[in-house]
Structures are given as structure tokens and as C-alpha cells.
Amino acid sequence: MPEPEAAPGEVTVRVRAAAICATDRRLANAGTPEPRIPGHEVAGVLEDGTAVGVQPNVGCGRCTSCALGLENRCPDHVDIGIQRDGGLAELIVVPDGHVVPLDGFPFELAPSIEPLACCLHAVGMLDVAEGNLAVVVGAGTLGIIGMWALQAAGARVAVVQRSEARRHLAAELGADAVLGPGDDVAAALGALPAAALVTAPGIEALSWAIDQVDVGGRVHAFAGTPGGAPVDANLVHYRHLRLVGSTGSTVEDYRRARDLARSGAVPLDRMPSRTVALDEVPEILLDRSPDPRMLRVVVRP
Hints:
This protein has 301 residues and is an alpha/beta fold. The protein has ten helices and 15 strands. The chain has two domains: 10-115 and 249-299, Medium-chain alcohol dehydrogenases, catalytic domain (Quinone Oxidoreductase, Chain A, domain 1); 126-245, Rossmann fold. Helix 8 (233-238) links the parallel strand 12 (218-221) and strand 13 (242-245).
């Protein structure tokens, strides 16, 4: 590829670290309409040496959502690493408003700021208060980071996961309780949860959460499901539930994620990870059976 050239209003970032996400694996396996460099969890340096993270959700700048700073909700958004070239490369060009100074945060952890920002955005929609009980459905990367985000908001969190290996991992990483889909969440937490963050795709995970939260509870559909996931509207109606969803984050979410991680309130350094070189990426993206306990793969160009 030729070196990318920054247009007016853009900056060039020399990539120091990028993480491989499930979205990147889907792009590699399903293909894209035109050749695309994936990678939306990125950190690097500007031409003047400033260390920055990249917030990838770029809006049109003209619509109501963008005017509110909610570019992740823009109907015409163009996301870095998905609709435009991303950070699994030596260089990336991004809008200058989407680089955030790392202020000393380590490069090897910085790509995880992006998924943490997405989780903070989602948790903010669940109105979690100190002492609330919550459940996370799924113990993948976003499930673990979502668990930490809920705990940082003051909740006690149970993680529900079918895989035994992932359940053990969630317990090691600080879950207040871990259980399988058939276990009693009220017994594990002492009462039914007020909020659920569903990070596993599919109707089964979402239906479980809607059925298990307390009356008046909040459920966040944080995972996309190909073909959709129909739910029982009567449960939502008669049990006074709130069903919400979101994808991506805002630049302000990203800054908050950086600050939380830097303070230690969210221990991103505990995430099981390995570091690889850029030429190892294709094999990793096409691996159909990755290690279930290795939640992060960080690329260092």
C-alpha cells in the first residue's frame, strides 16, 4: 500500500500498537466491498512525537447526533478500520478531532481504551448506581471489560458464560459471581439483578437477560446478531423493563476510559494478551478456533 496522505483536518499517526477485535475477524472471514485495512483499536504517535489513542467512530459533523457529540449514532458514520482504512498498518490517517493524548498511558495497553469506551457508553445507558446488582452475559473481551466498567460504576457483577474455561477466567479477573446459563442468578447475587449487559450474540443470550433481570430492570443489547433476535415484548411490557442498545462510543467516552484505566479503576493490565508482529496478523484473523483464554492480541508494527 502507498503511504496514506492526510487531507485538511486530518493527521497522520505512526502506529505503535493495535489490537485485533472480533469485528476484524468478521471482516477477514466475510470480506469487504472493497479492499480495506482493518483495525479500530489503535494507538501511536503524531509527527511531533505526541502519543495518542484513536477514537474510531467518525460522524458526518452535520446531523443532530453529531451536534450533540454522539457521532457513534450518526446515520452516515464512517468508522476507522471498517468503512475507512484502520490501524493494522505502520501508518494511519484520522480526523484530527479523533486523536486523544495518552498522557503517559502505556502503548501496549492503549488499544484497549477503545472497547472500554464502548462499554462505558453502554453502562451509562443502564443507570447503574452504587450497590446495584448487575449481570454480564458473555465472558469474552467485551464481557470482561464490561464487567470492570460496571464495577467501576459501583455494581456487584455476576458473569454468565456457557464455556467453563471462560467462567474460570471471569472469576480470576474479578467477577463477584460466575454461573452457567442454567444456574440461579438470584442465588449467586442474593437477589435478581437490576441491570444486564448482553455481550454475547443471539436470541438465547438476550432472552435469558430479559427473563432474569428484576422487575423494572434495564437490559442492554450490546452484541449484534445476524438475522436479528426477536424477543417477547410481553415480558418487557408487563415487567416494566427497559431494553436499550448502543454501538461504539464518543470522544468524551474515550477520554473517560483513558482516565479510568490510568487511575487503575479498570485494570486493563490484567487482560490476558499476547503481542505479535504485523506479518502474523493474517493467520490470526483467519484462525477459526482461537484460544478462549487469550482475550487480547496486540500488534506492534
